[in-house]
Amino acid sequence: MTIIMNSVTSDKKKSRSDKRSDKRTDKRIESPISENSIHKGSNKDKRSDKKFDKKFGKKFCPNCGSILKGEQEVCKSCSNQDFTFKDIHIVLCNSCHSYYSRNKWIKFKDINSLIKTIAGQNIKARVHIKNMPKELKDKIISYKAGIKTNITIPVTYGHNEFEIPATLEITLCNKCSKKESQYFESILQLRNSNDEILEFVRNDVKKQHKKGIYITKEVLLEKYSNRDIDLYLTNQTYAKTLAGKIKKNFGGIIKKNAKHFSLNWQTTKTVYRLNILLQLPNYKKNDVIKYDNHLYKVVSLGSTIHVIDLKTNNKTSLPNKDSYDVLHPAIFQVIKRYPEYEVLDPNTYYQARLMNPSKKLEINQKIKVVIDGSEAWMV
């Protein structure tokens, strides 16, 4: 597209070339005064101009005031101030601050820099593109998806200022459209979960947002408990990876089931949704569990459970089971050191023999223990 501005013309009639330019459908941006549009006058006028030069020494451009050389009527920059530009169409995703260009979405940091880049690619001239007014800039950034409007881009070419029309469209990129919709490819079913596990899952998914991976839906099987929860994920491959990470850190047993969902009419391929069931154990790292009349402190979880025997202080491993007897710690007070250490629960006054005391324990010192019958074990 090109734009035309009226030029200052002489009283003479336009030439045939001027008439042809008027009939064009394209528009051209031109300076208000051009060298060809000024009538040069008679020889007498030229002689008077020479007298002007001789008397005052210099002539000036009537448009910009710059010094003229020789018999110039306007300066070179003013006589050639015209340029063309293509239609400017800007497509933004304000959800992730990216714009659409050449069939892909690209991140941007500043809206002014972005508009300057896009406008510069479409304007076929060396123009100075000004910053957008702050009010318009803030308004563009606040637009939600579905907005399509027209804006003008202020530019300076030579000594003239122009406003270039542009179309602005706010939409959602491919990644953000998944986040805002109910789209999912896999359901991760967590059983016997807790706040620590859910925080781990959400933090890990958050790191994948740049790849277009989100939790689009969370369903609690019990209204006020997150013990059993279904998480809808936008990527099957990542759902498998995430289940493996949870098992490595918290233990559990994984079961997978692909379910027929629909048919892709374009490729005629069957679309499946992957259900991943992760049955988490009733214990976690640093818990004390009882197995075969021995007490063990859990060090790490995975395919096997790495533990420390509280009696021998030796490291060993146990099979990964859904559940073990978990002994919960409590705060007891040391009441006796000789001949054996004894501790007391200050709330219930329950006394127990301390089986693994430390040499540094003092009377009335409070310690954390687990109780197994009449025995207490420091943890």
The helix count comes to 8
Helix amount: 10-25%
The number of distinct β-strands equals 21
Domain module count: 5
Describe this protein's structure.
The chain is α+β, with helices and mostly antiparallel strands. It has 5 domains: 64 residues, no CATH class; 87 residues, no CATH class; 98 residues; 40 residues, no CATH class; 49 residues, no CATH class. Helices cover 21% and strands 35% of the residues. The N terminus is likely disordered.
Topology diagram in text:
Elements: H1 16-23, H2 43-56, H3 76-79, E1 89-93, E2 98-101, E3 104-107, H4 111-122, E4 128-129, H5 134-142, E5 148-157, E6 160-170, H6 174-180, E7 186-191, H7 195-206, E8 215-222, E9 225-233, H8 236-250, E10 253-264, E11 269-279, E12 288-291, E13 294-300, E14 304-309, E15 315-319, E16 325-327, E17 330-336, E18 342-344, E19 351-354, E20 366-372, E21 375-378
Parallel strand pairs: 1-6, 7-11, 19-21
Antiparallel strand pairs: 1-2, 2-3, 4-5, 5-6, 7-9, 8-9, 10-11, 12-13, 12-16, 13-14, 14-15, 17-18, 17-20, 18-19, 20-21
